[in-house]
Structures are given as structure tokens and as C-alpha cells.
Amino acid sequence: MIATDSPRRCLLFVPGARPERFDKAVASGADQVCIDLEDAVGRDDKVTAREATLQFILATQNKSAPTSQSAQSRPPVQLGLRINSISGLDYGSRALGLADLQRIVETGARPAFIMLPKIEDAEDVLRVEKILAHTDIPVIPQLESPHAIFEARAIAGACKRVQALMFGGYDYAVAARVKPGERGWFWARAQLAAAAAEAEIGALDVPSLELKNMHEVAAETEQVIALGYTGKAAIHPSQVATIQNIFLPTADEHQRALRVLAAVASATSAAIQVDGKLVDRPIVLAAQRVAELARLGLRG
Q1: Between these two residues, 10 and 62, which has the higher pLDDT value?
Q2: Do 23 and 170 belong to one domain?
Q3: Staple 202 to which of 162, 192, 230, 296, CB 3.0 to 4.6 Å?
């Protein structure tokens, strides 16, 4: 089942040159699946991968996409794609990215989102906005350079179409001359998350390259949640359950949130206390977020 209003804790990438993996990715349980037409596809295969991706999205729209299990047994998933770069920094890639957008419009494919790699400023987003003007497809700009991070606030607020910002950590590390990882990424991650929060949109973190040690994946997910991230990307289905579980509240967190919301609902004055602590507006908003996530389950 494809949904457009499901939560966005984990975004699973799947190579656009491997259409035999598309259905498996959709069935993985990830909140979002992103078919990748950029890094995961060689230049000679770009057109073939684009057409296969759009055909899969169209088939899914028509509820005829190939499936290995009943549509009723699938968790909702947002199915989108990452196009090639439309940034003016790379004219060769820019032509491919613009062609990707034109084909999306021409075919009538309506992915749940389009990820825009290597976005440098708001003008890049507005260029896409003009092409997609007669559609309601959301976009996720991917910020992969120091300049892009400095422009994060403008990119986040470029247009209402922006659904989330994504941190492109490995390209950023090369451009910023830092080591990939918590210390090298800390400043950029925090800047991006703050810009996304200000614009009230999502913030997606770079995927972990760890495919076996899920404790490491869980720890990295905890780190970015602490910075304000609402989701994290994955590059393999084995990472999905771990990432999505970490975004869920614990039973204790859920119970406290319910106590806060109950106290607010029954309050007869502005001074509200729960568990001996004053409850103000930020506490109430946090409790509402916890209660919303708890609808998906509690952390295992």
C-alpha cells in the first residue's frame, strides 16, 4: 500500500538500475522508499533506469505494481525518487536532472516526493518549482556542501513544496575537509536540523554504511534524534527496523506524555504540574509528538 501521509522515520534507498529490487524495497516496512537515479546509476544506464522507475511508479499509482505479498499486508510507504542533480555547478548532470523532471511531468507519474541532490541555494529549488508548477509533488532538497548548509534556511523556506531537508554527509565531508562521523558532521547536522525545525519541515540524516552491526546504526540514530532529526536514510532493508524502532517512544515516555495531555485537558488554571514538574507549552508540544509516534508502537 502506498500512502502520502505516513510517518517518515526511515527512508530506504534502492538503486534505479535494479528494478527487480523495487517491490522488495516497498515491502520492507520503511516509511519512505526512494528509487535512486543519481549515484546508484551509471551514466550509460540513466535513461533506462529513469523509464523503469517511472513505469513502476505509474503501475503503483494504478494499483497494478508487481508484489510479492498482499497489498493489505504491507505497511504504508511513501514511494519517491531521487533525480540527477539540477544544480548549475555541474552542467552535464544538470541536463540529466532537468530531463528527469520533464519526464515525470510528461508521463503523469506522481511520486510521493522527489529528492533533489546537490542543492546549493533557494534558486535551485525554485528552478524545480517552475517545472513542477502544475503538480503537487513535494521535494526533498539534499544539502551536500558547506555553502548549502549556510543556505539551509533559505532552501527550507524556498517554497511550500519543500517537505524536508536531507543531509548529504559524505559529499559534505569531502567538501568541508572533515572526517565523516559524529564529530566531523556535528556542526552541519545541527545547522540543517535547526533550519528544518524553523520551517516546520522534516530533517533526514545521511545513511549509515554499517550493514551488520545494528547497535552502531541504533547509536547513530539516537545521536541525530538528539539534534532534532525526524528521520534517517537507509541503504539496506536490514537497517530499516532498527532505525524506525529508535524513533518510537519508550513505554515510560508514552505514559508521561499521556499524563501531561490529560492534565492539560482537565486544567482549570494556567499553572499545571505533572510528576511534580511545571508543564508549559514546549512540554505539551513534546507530549503531543510522543503520543503521535506511539500510534505506530512503542520502542522494543
Answers
A1: 10
A2: yes
A3: 230
